[in-house]
Amino acid sequence: ASASIRVAQQGAVRTITLNRPAALNSLTREMLAAWLDALEQAAADPAVRALVITGAGRAFCAGQDLADPAVAPADGANVAHADLGRVIEDSYRPLVLRLRSMPVPVVAAVNGVAAGAGANLALAADIVLAAESASFIQAFSKIGLVPDSGGTWLLPRLVGRARAFGLAMLAEKLGAREAESIGLIWKCVPDAALAREAETLAQRLAAMPVRALVAMRGAIDDAAHLTLDAALMREAALQRALGHAHDYLEGVDAFRRKRAPIFTDR
Ligand code: T3D
């Protein structure tokens, strides 16, 4: 564990809190490594059936810590420190890939501003809830960069090309209400209700057939570049596998007997 990342468990729900509130939870290399480590631990722990990611203080995450010497712009004397590509490859890419391949559903509880990589890491969650006062900003163009942490891939999928370009190029702050209305996030909730709603939602997901929920993520993401027939075949393969799993047996039996199902696959 690390002071910059807090981990808590409530029933089957693991919560990871970004915890550098004085710096708006902006990401240092140490913090990126600790976040990845916390995700690895959650992925490996069979007691975890849903994950919540959130931030401490008034921000969700302000993206890369721009005070970190590792990302200082090259100025001739400082050229060796300026390989942003390496920072992305070593720290952000593994984090995004890990989030998108978690064996459990991932809920982002966006408690405040989510900027740059902080926005795209939030949007990488399966379900994004945001407090009414939270906001999303693709801050990259303000400092001469392109959306990273999956922004170029996620944004057009979430909101379409026109809005993806507007958000990425103009880098305007988008309030949570508007983010909900354009389909960037699932739901905007009153500030005071965010933590409770995220916990309730995650507990609900944890009681669902988690293996099927996770299979959906890959199927829906991949379908964007598959033909209809290839997507149908992918669905058939998934139903074939899930149809032999415990949760399907349990779900159908519970339905027939009019009782509540107890799902256990992960
Ligand atoms: O660089 C690479 O390695 C490539 C990787 C890139 C990934 C990225 O994430 S690039 C994008 C980096 N993030 C940003 O550009 C966002 C910068 N921050 C902001 O635009 C604003 O701070 C916010 C919109 C997030 C919040 O605005 P506001 O008005 O609510 O707060 P503030 O006053 O701007 O910030 C409060 C403090 O946090 C302030 O420090 P101070 O003056 O009180 O000592 C500010 O400097 C600090 N802060 C905010 N964001 C960052 C930060 N310090 C370091 N890094 C930050 N990203």
TrEMBL record:
Species, as recorded: Pararobbsia silviterrae
Keyword Transcription: no
PANTHER family reported in the protein's UniProt record: ENOYL-COA HYDRATASE (PTHR43802), IP11341P-RELATED (PTHR43802:SF1)
Pfam families: ECH_1 (PF00378)
UniProt keyword list: Isomerase, Lyase
A GO term for molecular function: isomerase activity
Highest taxon of source: Bacteria
Name of the protein in question: 2-(1,2-epoxy-1,2-dihydrophenyl)acetyl-CoA isomerase
Similarity comment: Belongs to the enoyl-CoA hydratase/isomerase family.
E.C. no: 4.2.1.17
Record has Transcription regulation as a keyword: no
InterPro entries: ClpP/crotonase-like_dom_sf, Enoyl-CoA_hyd/isom_CS, Enoyl-CoA_hydra/iso, Enoyl-CoA_hydra_C
